[in-house]
Amino acid sequence: MDTKADLSSLGVLEALLFVSEEPLSLERIEELLDGCSRAEVNRLLADLQERCRDRDRGVVVTEVAGGYRLTTKPEAAPWIQRLRGSKPARLSRAALETLAIIAYKQPITKPEVEVIRGVMVDGVLKTLVERDLVRILGRKAEVGRPILYGTSRSFLEYFGFKDLSELPTLKEIETLTPNVVEKEASHEDVDQTEKTE
Questions:
Q1: Run of H or E residues at 29
Q2: What is the pLDDT of residues 9-39, one digit of tens each?
Q3: Residue 128 is part of which domain span?
Q4: Are residues 73 and 113 located together in one domain of the fold?
Q5: Which helix (H) or strand (E) holds 176?
């Protein structure tokens, strides 16, 4: 491939990543850039990633959900919020807890999630499915054939994971949140003291 073709292919790749509604896999990029080998696609991606590292650029090439996409740099968030006129929709604590259980225990049934959470999850689960963060994987081979749930590709995109192996381990979570556990324990101590007084 000559320099002129490289620049052209690089520009085409950037345009494809810009307009694609979902991450593009290496295979899909190869298909779209007919004539480019896997090695050439990898080189083009590396070149584009390097160019986007320039501190004046507002976008980066991100590997997420088994593919690549252009995403905005976190530093641009205030201006993007101003453009959109609202903050991005956030997940409730109940939704995050349910989603975490599904992510770590998948495939899992609704009753199994409810046993772990200790509350019913009908509404939360419905919301997670509607937002395409959770998907139906099939049915469990037991009495009643309950539906099995797992995370979706949109889940990976939402949290910026390449795949499920990037989920933090439970040990990593414990090291990141020891203060939260201590604070909750101290609040419980205060509550107990107030009740006895």
A1: helix 26-32
A2: 888 888 898 888 888 898 999 888 887 888 9
A3: 93-166
A4: no
A5: helix 170-176
